Predict the 3D structure of the following.
Amino acid sequence: MSSDPNADDAPPPERPIPTLSHQDELLRDCLIDDLVAQSTRLDELARQLITVELAVPGLYVTVLRLVAGEKARIVADHQTRIPML
């Protein structure tokens, strides 16, 4: 006799292989499509951020001109620095 109690000569019982339902397949396909489109969404986000970055100084100057008039000046010296984040 062998010392291992689980060493039976009988094969393990056969179980049916679970298959994906239609909903699971659809969810998997949508997830794959979403992952593929992620780079496109990040490119669009970068475009929008660049647009905002370019638009903010123009809006600032426009508001400054409207509020202070034509004599408005922005004086930049070594103490006036815009922190870079």
Remarks:
- The chain has a mean pLDDT of 79.
- Residues 21-77 form one domain.
- The longest helix spans residues 22-68.
